[in-house]
Amino acid sequence: MSNPGPLSFTGTMENLVLKSAAASVRISVKVTSGYGAITVLDERYFPDGDGTVTLHHPGELCEPYARQYGSVTVTATVVELDGNETQTGTEDVDMGTVLFGNVDPQTDATTFCQRHFLTILMGPKTTAVGRKECLSAYDASALSVTAYVRDGDSVSTASGTLEPINITGKVYDYDVSPGNIRDVLQLSDAQQLLQYTCQSGDRRQTYEVVVEKVPPAPSLAFLNSFGCWEYIHCTGTHKKSSKFTYSTAVIGEKTRNYAIQEQRQLTANTGSLSYAMAEWADELFRSQQVYLYTGGKMGKEVVVSDVKDEVTNEDDNMPSYEFTWMYAQKLHNVIDTETKRLRVFDGTFDYTFE
């Protein structure tokens, strides 16, 4: 018998392979979370010529439950039947714990989760005070933070501890926004946060803090390949175009537009990215749930399309992605009362030319 290991991602969970001399085999698969157990498969199979029965892609059976509950345990009950439908044997198979993840980490899930947060970002992330950032980890606890802080002409270190803001099964979410880090470290207004590293066991993620004069347009929240929330803040050119479709008829001897359909399309650019962040930004384009993040909270759901995603190995290449987004709802005449509209020089002109 070959079955998945103690911890698997849904996307790379190994097949369940059985050897049986029985005429047929009934396999029942049960998924258990903190909210109870549910049977997701109960089917009869017939062994092939060499007595092998294979349950292909079992992770697909667990995916909706692992996504909802963070992680689930999976068991299979195998019942062997003879030609007369008489039970000749039974066996319970432990298929381990399954964690949502449409990824191929090229290592076993246990090793990956011990060494990495639940993100594909494999390098420092650029951020700024006022931006939202989130980290998630499997089977973690408190998160330690070590930061470099400038105070006048000197640079010193500061450290603190972050508690999870949400726990789903064994998946822990942390608010690692620069503003929250400043609060945890109890920095004064005169102290500037330069860089900070979040660590839990062997997991490490570094954030480099820059000073921005123009706010991102837009900031987007999205579910990554592990089903965890992450945030991208686009700093490149932002454009808006609206297309109006008119239904026209002559009514009462006057021409009327009796129906007007507006489709507002906005084009965003990520701005220059490091190669690590460029690889990570692909998560936005493969996400099925994307929302505007504005005014310190989740906003309208949006749909991303028309992605221009290209990275080369040329020496002077600085990756940046352009994409189109629009509101998921039918009504596109949305009034944005939260975002402060600035042009490029609105926040920098005085500093640049004084």
Give the biggest beta sheet: 7 strands, antiparallel
Number of strands: 22
| Poorly predicted tracts of residues | 347-354
How much is the radius of gyration in Å? 26 Å
Gross geometry: globular
Helix content: 10-25%
In whole angstroms, the N-to-C terminal distance is 75 Å
What is the string of helix and strand elements?
EEEEEHEEHEEEEEEHEEEEEEHEEEH
Cross-sheet strand order for the largest sheet:
17-16-20-21-22-19-18
Average residue pLDDT:
89
Q: Strand fraction band?
A: over 45%
Fold topology:
Layout: E1 7-9, E2 16-19, E3 24-33, E4 36-45, E5 52-55, H1 58-69, E6 71-81, E7 87-99, H2 109-115, E8 125-128, E9 134-138, E10 143-151, E11 154-162, E12 166-168, E13 171-175, H3 178-185, E14 191-200, E15 203-210, E16 219-223, E17 229-233, E18 239-251, E19 254-269, H4 275-286, E20 290-294, E21 297-308, E22 322-327, H5 349-353
Describe the protein's architecture and organization.
- By secondary structure, the chain is mainly beta.
- It has helices at residues 58-69, 109-115, 178-185, 275-286, 349-353; strands at residues 7-9, 16-19, 24-33, 36-45, 52-55, 71-81, 87-99, 125-128, 134-138, 143-151, 154-162, 166-168, 171-175, 191-200, 203-210, 219-223, 229-233, 239-251, 254-269, 290-294, 297-308, 322-327.
